[in-house]
Write a structure and sequence with these properties.
The complex is a heterodimer of chains A (114) and B (114).
Chain A: E1 4-7, E2 10-13, E3 19-25, E4 31-38, E5 42-51, E6 54-57, E7 64-66, E8 76-78, E9 87-94, E10 104-105, E11 109-113
Parallel strand pairs in A: 2-11
Antiparallel strand pairs in A: 1-3, 3-8, 4-5, 4-9, 5-6, 7-8, 9-10, 9-11
Chain B: E1 3-5, E2 10-14, E3 19-21, E4 24-26, E5 32-38, E6 44-50, E7 56-58, E8 64-68, E9 73-78, E10 87-94, E11 103-104, E12 108-113
Parallel strand pairs in B: 2-12
Antiparallel strand pairs in B: 1-4, 3-9, 5-6, 5-10, 7-8, 8-9, 10-11, 10-12
Classes of the chains: A mainly beta (114), B mainly beta (114).
């Protein structure tokens, strides 16, 4: 089955640690996205990538980093500079151009700082 | 810049009653509009989308939405609520055509009263 796989489902981070969230897709989509979800705030865009080896900051990129070395993979690193990382993180992908297509979402990773 | 406003962070309806979830948008270009549903600790699933053409859009699970340009609205409705409709609903907007990143509203949590 085609889809987006995020791992792990739950992640715990100690203060001062960097952690990496995995996102893999087998939909052959060009674009990939990372969103952060907090209660009452909806989803906010962290980073997005439209092509391998290129990515752009979203609305809340501070304290996060990404890479796009392969079309299928778009890992997100939450660095120690992110002061409030506890949240639900969602990865998505979409086709680019050729009309309007929707984004497909993974099942999310819940990150908790302990 | 685009934005989405969802009126009512919580909506409760009785089973069998009409569901109405409100969404207003702001966009400097013709908008492409989406409704997504999220069940607890899950990713987002597309309910329906508006691109061009018919302004009344039908989606999955009996939901539909009407695009009203004059009112900058894209409200979601369902004639008869079912217990399984209890979830969080997000309205989103994108520019499409190479700029598919989504801007989300803050979400509406729908509760169904037996």
């Amino acid at each position: 089955d085609g889809g987006i796989t995020q791992s792990p489902k739950y992640l715990f981070r100690k203060e001062g640690q960097n952690v990496t969230l995995s996102c893999e897709q087998n939909l052959n989509h060009d674009a990939m996205y990372w969103y952060r979800q907090d209660p009452g705030q909806g989803l906010r865009l962290i980073y997005y990538s439209q092509i391998v080896n290129d990515f752009q900051k979203g609305d809340i990129a501070e304290g996060y980093s990404v890479s796009r070395e392969k079309k299928e993979s778009f890992p997100l690193t939450v660095t120690s500079a992110q002061k409030n990382p506890t949240a639900f993180y969602l990865c998505a992908s979409s086709i680019l151009g050729g009309g309007v297509t929707e984004a497909f979402f993974g099942q999310g990773t819940r990150l908790t700082v302990v | 810049a685009q934005s989405v406003t969802q009126l009512g962070s919580h909506v409760s309806v009785s089973e069998g009653a009409l569901v109405l979830l409100r969404c207003n948008y702001s966009s400097s270009v013709p908008p492409y509009l989406f409704w997504y549903v999220q069940y607890p600790n899950q990713g987002l699933q597309l309910l329906l989308k508006y691109t061009t053409g018919a302004t009344l859009v039908k989606g999955i699970n009996g939901f539909e939405a009407e695009f009203k340009k004059s009112e900058t609205s894209f409200h979601l409705t369902k004639p008869s609520a079912h217990m399984s409709d209890a979830a969080e609903y997000f309205c989103a907007v994108s520019e499409g055509f190479g700029n598919e990143k989504l801007t989300f509203g803050t979400g509406t949590r729908l509760t169904i009263i037996p």
